[in-house]
Structure formats: structure tokens, C-alpha cells
Specification:
By secondary structure, this protein is α/β, with parallel strands linked by helices. It is built from 9 helices and 8 strands.
């Protein structure tokens, strides 16, 4: 990516084996073999290499370096800073405070009930999905018609395909040793740089409820240099859900980034 953007020296760092920063999709780079062999420490080392490179560039003030991490990269930033590297500030976009296993389980087992069935399908709030409610949603499984919300949750919990989806995530080489790590809330509270947390209220990959414990931990630790910025109509990619329906669970989008963020 260009090193100078809007009078800032900017260095974009992705996962080794992947480069989606180029504007023209024809120039995107994806080495499946390299990517599939990644380990978590490779991401941290990659950031360290970029950091050392940036420090050597003319015009770079070592006392005015900011890091920006999106989604799981919020954990990468924490691991990087635990090594003693100094920066002025950190931007966590799509903050992921729990471990990745916990959020994967929420997405697979609970998200549809909490952010779709209860909020939008069960319009009369009686805890039972009636035919008149179900038929408004093409995505609503026919076998769920007439079930209570609790029964739908039980069906999701016992679905072998859901269990398989979580297990496939756990088995990824990239997340070995970190997928069930301790939540990073207290570690973020111990960071000395300024912390900015930016989250979309319609983010279903790193939902906003992930942020509250971070703010509570930092308040308890006496950390005052932290700021939360919420974008009410944006999702995980800091873009609104796809129209015309624009439902955060059923119509997610991953870009382009909305102008209000940039």
C-alpha cells in the first residue's frame, strides 16, 4: 500500500500469503499454501517486521506511531505490545475481547436467536413462532414453524452441523494455542497507549456486547485514556448491511468502508 496517505506515513499489514489492499482485484495476491501454514505467532512477527521497517523510514516519528487492528487483529496488537514495543495509540476496529472460540460459538449457536428470531421474527413476543410470523422470512426453516424460541435454541445447540462448524474452526492451524485463550479485557486495561475502540452497532462478527467488559475493566484499572466510538448503522466491515432489507444477520456486508469512518 502507499506509504504516504493524507500526510501520514501509512503501512498496511495483512496476513502473510494474502494481499487484498490493492484497489484493483486483478492485483490481489492469495497464496493458499502459505496461508494455510500460518501460525498465530507468524501474525505477530509480521507486525514486528512492519514496525521495525516503519521506524527506519525517513520522516517517521517513533513517538507518534499508531496501530490499527481489525477483528482478530485486536488480539495480534495486544500480543505485539506485550513484547514491549512502544506506540502512542491503538485503534481497535471491530473489537474482539473474548477468545475466538467463544465468539465462534455465539455466531453458530446463539446469534440467530438473539439477533433475528427474538428481535424480528417473534413480533408478538409470545415466545412461539407462528405461521404468520414465519412466512415473512424466506430464510426461516420450515421445520421451526410452530416451535417456541427455546425449542429453536435447543435445535441449534444439538445440530451436528453446527458442532462440526465450530470444530473446523478450532482445528485451524492459525489458531492453535490461542483459540481458547483468556479474554483480553484486563490486558487491554494494562496498556499505556491511548486506546480507541470503534465498533458498528450492527456488527454480528464482533458484536458490540464485546466492548462493555473492556470499558468496565479499564475503569476498574483506572485507565482514562480510552474512547469508544459507535457507528449505529454499520456492520463488521464498517459498511451498512446489504439493501434493500439491510438486516444485520441475514444481509451482512464487508465493505466498502463507509465515508463516515474515513
Amino acid at each position: 500500500a502507499p506509504f504516504v496517505q493524507k500526510n501520514w506515513n501509512v503501512l498496511s499489514v495483512g496476513k502473510p500469503g494474502v494481499d487484498f489492499f490493492s484497489g484493483d482485484t486483478a492485483n490481489w495476491f492469495y497464496n493458499r499454501e502459505l496461508y494455510s501454514g500460518l501460525k498465530w505467532n507468524d501474525l505477530v512477527s509480521n507486525l514486528e517486521t512492519a514496525y521495525e521497517f516503519a521506524l527506519k523510514q525517513p520522516g517517521v516519528d517513533p513517538n507518534n506511531i499508531y496501530l490499527l487492528g481489525h477483528s482478530e487483529a485486536t488480539h495480534v496488537l495486544v500480543d505485539f505490545l506485550k513484547k514491549g514495543h512502544k506506540v502512542k495509540g491503538i485503534f481497535f476496529l471491530g473489537f474482539l475481547g473474548t477468545n475466538m472460540l467463544e465468539i465462534a460459538k455465539w455466531q453458530v449457536y446463539r446469534m440467530y436467536v438473539e439477533k433475528w428470531i427474538k428481535t424480528d421474527v417473534d413480533t408478538n413476543n409470545n415466545g412461539v413462532i407462528e405461521e404468520s410470523e414465519a412466512k415473512k422470512w424466506a430464510e426461516f426453516p420450515a421445520e421451526w414453524n410452530g416451535l417456541t424460541v427455546s425449542q429453536i435454541q435447543e435445535a441449534l445447540n444439538s445440530d451436528p452441523e453446527n458442532k462440526k462448524a465450530v470444530e473446523q474452526f478450532v482445528r485451524q492451524r492459525l489458531y492453535e494455542g490461542v483459540f481458547d485463550r483468556t479474554d483480553i479485557y484486563e490486558e487491554v486495561a494494562k496498556l499505556t497507549p491511548d486506546v480507541y475502540i470503534l465498533n458498528g452497532a450492527k456488527d454480528m462478527q464482533t458484536p458490540l456486547w464485546q466492548v462493555t467488559p473492556a470499558l468496565e475493566s479499564e475503569k476498574k484499572a483506572g485507565k482514562t485514556n480510552i474512547k469508544l466510538i459507535t457507528f449505529e448503522d454499520l456492520g463488521h466491515g464498517f459498511s451498512p448491511p446489504k439493501g434493500p432489507r439491510a438486516h444485520p444477520v441475514l444481509d451482512p456486508s464487508l465493505g466498502p468502508i463507509d465515508s463516515k469512518v474515513t
